[in-house]
């Protein structure tokens, strides 16, 4: 990507990548503490995988965003591939949450929306970068922040709500 396209983004990518890595580690430790309860529920292992996968996506996006001299379309393709992998994890989690669920439909729809909302900006940003549109960086930043928020919410469920 041209230096002018990514100028000023280095600190953001370093900070968000570090935050994503730290949170992924904490979620892994938290899951190990509640492993019995998580494995007893049909949907929680997939939800845990989606949360960790999304946080790893943040780390990967931050890493590829720091590669100097990378063309915008290349960065866009890299991020889009990672986003598609995370999307598959979220689809599996949503399918498991909705199958054999005794939860209200509104709850399932809300959880599905949270998963979708956090990944859409990354997909949009990737496509914009593939088209060499620098505004894609802002979409990607928004997506990374939403992933952090969504993953923390999932971690809350995996650590606290399952014990109620």
Describe this entry's structure for a reader.
There is one protein chain. The mean pLDDT is 86. The chain is built from 7 helices and no strands. α2 runs parallel beside α7, α4 runs antiparallel to α5 and α6 runs antiparallel to α7. It is mainly alpha-helical and 164 residues long. Helix content is 81%, strand content 0%.
Q: Structural class given helices, strands, pairing?
A: mainly alpha
Low-confidence stretches: none
Assembly state of the chains shown: single chain
End-to-end Cα distance = 49 Å
Mean pLDDT: 86
Can you write the helix and strand succession as a string? HHHHHHH
Number of helices: 7
Beta fraction of the residues?
A: under 5%
Helix content: over 70%
Instruction: Specify the biggest β-sheet.
Output: none
* Alpha-carbon Rg, integer: 16 Å
**In total, how many beta strands?**
0
Shape: elongated
């Amino acid at each position: 990507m041209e230096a002018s396209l990514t100028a000023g983004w280095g600190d953001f990518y370093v900070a968000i990548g570090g935050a994503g890595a730290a949170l992924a580690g904490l979620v892994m430790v938290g899951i190990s503490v509640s492993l019995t309860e998580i494995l007893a529920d049909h949907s929680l292992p997939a939800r845990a995988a989606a949360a960790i996968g999304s946080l790893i996506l943040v780390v990967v996006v931050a890493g590829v965003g720091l590669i100097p001299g990378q063309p915008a379309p290349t960065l866009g393709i890299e991020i889009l591939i990672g986003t598609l992998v995370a999307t598959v994890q979220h689809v599996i989690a949503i399918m498991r949450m909705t199958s054999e669920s005794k939860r209200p439909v509104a709850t399932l729809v809300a959880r599905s929306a949270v998963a979708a909302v956090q990944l859409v900006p990354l997909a949009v940003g990737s496509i914009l970068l593939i088209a060499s549109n620098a505004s894609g960086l802002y979409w990607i930043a928004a997506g990374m922040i939403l992933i952090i928020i969504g993953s923390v919410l999932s971690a809350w469920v995996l650590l606290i709500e399952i014990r109620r």
